[in-house]
Amino acid sequence: MPFIAKTAPVTVGxxxxxxxxxxxxxxxxxxRSDDLVYLWSSETRGGVGLWGxxxxxxxxxxxxxxxxxxxxxxxxxTNNFGxxxxxxxxxxxxxxxxxxxxxxxxxxxxxxxxxxxDAEAALLQQQFG
Length: 129
What we know:
The chain is an alpha/beta fold. The protein has helices at 83-86, 97-107, 118-125, and strands at 2-7, 17-21, 23-25, 36-41, 49-60, 67-75, 112-115.
């Protein structure tokens, strides 16, 4: 299952391990080992938006904030995909991948771990060329 983790900025490379401890929203509490996770750093805190993709190594359940360990498999090698791209869709009621991402990442702007639909994951996957 695909997920997205929106966090404060992190500086790591491919094959590095990232520890994520954020609230679970939009089905994020269902994240498990071996799940695919897209990594997004909060631009309001100096991040760049989508920056990487990884595999969940472990999940330690915790009330409201699972502790998720992720191995970074790939970094984005295209231009940044961030608030500039999703902001115009934040109030959309359309059932489109970009509108779904905008609701999860921009309209409800808290850092979080959230489930992604296959279409939302496919949109993010395009950024890895």
